[in-house]
Amino acid sequence: MVKIFVITYSTYNHINQVAESIVEGLQKADVEVGRYQVAETLSEEILTKMHAAPKPDLPIIKAQDLVEADGFLFGFPTRYGTTPAQVKAFFDSTGQLWQKQALAGKPVGFFFSTASQHGGQEVTVFTTLPILAHHGMIYVPFGYANAHLFDNSEVIGGSPWGAGTIAGGDGSRQPSEKELAIARDQGENFAKVAIKLAAN
Asked: What domain of life is recorded for the organism (predicted)?
């Protein structure tokens, strides 16, 4: 069975909520799902001052774990249009895998959160693509495979680059049902691509 890892970093739990819907979509396509989180680099003191949410009870991903999966969906908030330092630190730890090209040909997708509608959801993925290029991994965009991406009647996170949520400047806005529906469809669509690639 094709194995997909859903790997997240979340400060205020918005990404973990979206990840649950991503997993639901993956399971609809009958793939094995591994759920991991990226290690925190901030101290408890700083996290407390930030009013960060408690971390979920998930294993911490290690670089070597990646070789076990057939594909990956990474979820994280944007930091000025790029990945958080915690996610960058994880990618920086994959040097030995890069040397061996151990991840070449594996599909990758992204989902994300931002404080505002124009907070960099698309550019966050765009600035991460060089990492995939160096590893020889295959980026799988979502496209407009969910009608909610055409809905301009309300605030809806997500784009053809991947599912997303708008958290609000103070983190008070929670993922909407439309955003979670987009995430479920992304999970299912990604699984179908991963299954096709694994069959070759």
From this structure: Eukaryota
Outline where DSSP puts E strands in 46-183: 71-77, 107-114, 138-139, 164-166
CATH 3.40.50.360 assigned to domain 3-199? The reply is yes
Q: To 10 degrees, what angle do helices 177-199 and 14-28 make?
A: 50
Evaluate the CA torsion angle 83, 86, 88, 91 in order and state its sign: negative
176 token code pair: 């909407």
pLDDT in tens, 59-83: 999 999 999 999 999 999 999 989 9
Domain residue extents for the chain: 3-199
Q: Look up the pTM and report it.
A: 0.96
